[in-house]
Amino acid sequence: MTNHAGPLYEINFVIEKDTPPDFESWLEELGRTAPNRTGIENVRIFEHGVDSDGNSIHTCQFLVRDDHALDELLDGYFADIDADLAERFGVQVRPESRILREDHLHDLPPDESPVCLNCGTRLRGQYCGNCGQRSRSRLISIWQLLREAFGDLFELDSRLWRTVVPLLTRPGRLTRDYLEGRRARYMPPFRTYLVLSVIFFLVAFFDPQSFKQIIDPDPQPTAEEIAQKKETAEAAAAAEELRLEEARKRLEALEAEGKIPPEVVAQVGAANSGFSINFGDSEKDDGSQFFGDCENATISGDEDLPEWIKKRFTDERVKEICERNNARGQENFVDAIADDIPVSLIVLLPLMALVLKLLYPLSRRYFVEHLLFFVHFHAFFFLMLVLQIVLAGIAGLLGPEDGAIDSISTLIIVIASFYIPVYLYKAMRLVYGQGHLITLFKYVILLVAYLTGATFTMLGALLAAVLSA
User: Fold this and answer.
1) What is the pLDDT of residues 218-256, one digit of tens each?
2) How far apart, in whole angstroms, are the C-alpha atoms of residue 255 and residue 268?
3) Which is nearest to 94 in space by CA: 128, 127, 63, 53?
4) What ranges do the domains of the chain cover?
5) Nearest 5 degrees, angle CA 389-CA 394-CA 397?
6) 3-class SS at 186?
7) For the packed helices 403-432 and 436-467, what is the interaxial angle rounded to 10 degrees?
8) What is the CATH number of domain 8-100?
9) What does the pLDDT read at residue 291?
10) Which phi and psi (to 5°) does residue 341 adopt?
11) What is the pTM of this model?
């Protein structure tokens, strides 16, 4: 029996222990009735032998007309055979099925069924039923290589676009669909978050001016320009110091005249005498001493701090941190902060999920479901930032001196900025299903907690960048 007309579907009936008395008659009936099914051209039944465990095996091979007929039979007739077998014989007879095809490329014999190269499972079609990998793995051309790499990006019906569009336009839709079990049509939540966060950081920290500097570098400032810039900075610092001195004298004069009580002056003085780390003025204007003169670095106002902080922030320790950060330079310091921001945002996710858990104690939702809400919201937030940055860049390229284009771009960015908090409110309404008033109350609390958490996580990223030098 050859497989020229179409694929060969094979079922091996593994019989444990003794053969059931009515199995052979059932198998003969299957061989008589199967050719009458649409799409099956021939049937062959034979005894295959025994396996390594001593179980006898009977084989039934169905010659199918084509792949289309095979798909219909897999969903219908062949599935009915498995169900009828389980109902009649239970665990005594175990079916093992596979699809056999002629391999014109490698000239393999028909009895060698292909297996998935990823997990080793016998293949029953174009994709592996166990891990989902495509059966064909060879890259025939550069075009196929590009399709493998960017297929989801350019296919309008791919899961990427089916995720991005509702993420942008339907607040809370992805979260609700995922919680209700409609998941296969979308990208997994954390993958969506990671993809959009990577795109955001690539776009945000990509500097087009770097290419311009390679092609047409800016001229280096002259000694006179450097000296003038330094004089301007010194004059601004002197003016600020003079302003503070005049304000202090004015405050003392008002106290002497009895117009303000001494307690107010004491409170102002206490407010200006808190913990601070002071660096000396930088002697260079090229960014190599952006932390200042480390030799003059001191700590003030640390009397009320805990002992464990005092031991870690001594004058020597501050000078050491200052010197290390000056050594790596301003640009590397900014890059270090940028590297720490993604970690800070990931830390922010469970914190905000905990806030949602506290705001909705009767929702009967698990913590991970609240976490999913913020994973989708952060993904949306990254997407909006990417669109704003790209829009600003396009406006700058189209008309850097055109006021109309610049105004339109600014207006769209402002509207997008207002859309983000509105999106959060509408997402809360859709996912948690509460009324406007109670949702607004919880929204304000969540917004305050979010801004507070974001501030502290960004300060943590800054501190980590400073101490990691």
Assistant:
1) 566 777 777 777 777 777 777 777 777 777 777 677 667
2) 12
3) 53
4) 8-100, 219-316, 331-467
5) 125
6) coil
7) 120
8) 3.30.70.100
9) 54
10) -65, -45
11) 0.53
